[in-house]
Amino acid sequence: MVITKETEETEIRHLLNNAQIIYEHFDELRKLSGEGFNIFSVLQIESSEVVTHSRFLTELLNPNGSHGIGDTFLKLFVDQLDIPDFNTKTATAKSEISIGEKTDETGGRIDIVISNQSGRKIVIENKIYAVDQPNQLLRYRNQYPDATLLYLTLNGKKPSDYSKGKGEGKLSDEAYKCISYRNDILNWLENCRKESANFPLLRETITQYIILIKKLTNQNLSSKMNEQIIDLVISNNGKSFLPYFSLVDTKDAILDKVLEILKVNIEEYARTSSDNLKLKWDLSRARKNTKFIFSNETMDAHNISICFEFEEVNARGLIFGFIYVDKTKPKQIPAKLIENFNSMFTECCRPTELWPCHAYWNEWRFWDRYKYKEVLTGAFMVALKEKLEKLLKVCEAKTAL
User: Fold this and answer.
1) Is residue 245 part of a domain?
2) In this predicted model, what pLDDT tens digit does every residue of 219-239 receive, in sequence order?
3) Where in the sequence is the domain holding 10, given as residue range(s)?
């Protein structure tokens, strides 16, 4: 059979219609099973290494944790990872441990440290989406040369050379162990849930966290839905095979088109704003630190602008706040503005040379297909307008500017 443009378009429509039916079926299953509700997602902290994962894992791993069942979870963890001769009875677990000022060889802040009275330590570097820092694992190994050093990621990937150091002092692969949420943590959590059978609240909290991990590692209902779509693509003597790849090939172009639509909407908002906002646009999925910026005459007079920036490629790590515009001009923001910003927003970050005050926009921090859809539905513009109104109030409140 010769595939013409017309027959391919017909197959594309057929494929989309059937995929829509499959999606709606599994969306209904999500609602019936309760998988659509997850407290970690509701609180918009599902991708935060420190706020969610490190602190939650530490609480479970700590024999003195609020779960109240001693070293049961830690013992399961040690057994799961085959860590020999680690006395869990005398152990404590802590998160966000400072080991001094950061240098090329030591210092920094460790996500999780488990210690026992015999001096044994388990050190965990927890990576969900954050990138490696320079010499990060090397610094931790230098600080605790005898510790069991674990590098935890979603799927067990290896750390970059950037983290292991360079030259003769570079960390060897034998100096650490890679573990994953997908296998190691998920299996451990399943065992923890079994041990929590007589503690309903604890058991259900662990269950919620298991659902979150399955979501982050593509093992939830969405993965089963994907299996059915795969069957759809390769069935019917391959009629949908080439049309499917035609659709796949347009993915990046579709997402770029969504950003173009967003730009038009934001330009229209800035043009009609009563605050006389000017827009500067430099947003791209292909580069780090791309942004869009709002300013007006009042902000210009103080050499600052309102900025929304993605720290990573593919629209990841969205932050917002005030930036200095001209690096050659004085960079002294009114103290009242910083005070107003810190009181208005949570999760504020430390000031930098460019950002006198900024914070992560947790709800929109990482853009996936669902976030892009919310751009098309207008939900992002609603949220952006609300955020801008607050930022403009920060400027106006009691002569901040």
Assistant:
1) yes
2) 755 566 667 777 777 777 777
3) 5-35+221-249
